[in-house]
Amino acid sequence: MRSPRIACLVPAATDLAAELGLDVVGVSHECDHPIARGLPVLTRSRIAAMHPHGPGPAEIDLQVSAAVAAGEPLYTVDRAALARLAPDIVLSQAICDVCAARANSCDLPPARAWSSSPPPASPASPTT
Fold it and tell me: Coil, strand, or helix at residue 111?
């Protein structure tokens, strides 16, 4: 039996999947785990990143606040790449709109993009 193909939309999911020896086929733009090298990047931020010649913290905060107030996602998922990879499971998160792509905003491709049914989105949602 083959290992399930895993798409990780949050870096911690990649860390966990790698530690468990799962077949990670795609990662988030923020993933820095060694297993991510060479894998397709499935997410990107819609907010300009802070760098020496870019926006500062105050401008980034304004962009985030405006997007959240407008109900817009802060991250996008490359639906075409996700469909091409045809993962068995998509790991995301359901905690914070600002931290990473949320499970309910992943906008998974329609079922016809997969040979069977679309993969389940498995959001991390710890409680205290």
Answer: helix
CA atoms within 13 A on the CB side of 107: 14
Q: Which two tokens stand for residue 4?
A: 């399930």
What are residue 89's DSSP bridge partners?
6
pLDDT (tens digit, 9 = 90+) per residue, 1-30? 778 899 998 888 899 999 999 999 999 998
CA neighbor of 92 nearest in space, from 70, 115, 76 = 76
**DSSP letter (8 states) at residue 102:** B
Structure tokens at 114: 């997969």
Nearest residue to 88 via CA among 2, 27, 14: 2
Q: pTM above 0.70? A: yes
Q: What is the 3-state secondary structure (H, E, C) of 24-48?
A: EEEECCCCCCHHHCCCCECEEECCC
Helix (H) or strand (E) holding 6, with range, is strand 5-8
Instruction: Return the number of other C-beta atoms located less than 10 Å from residue 21's C-beta.
Output: 8
Q: Order of strands across the sheet with 5-8?
A: 23-26, 5-8, 89-93, 121-124
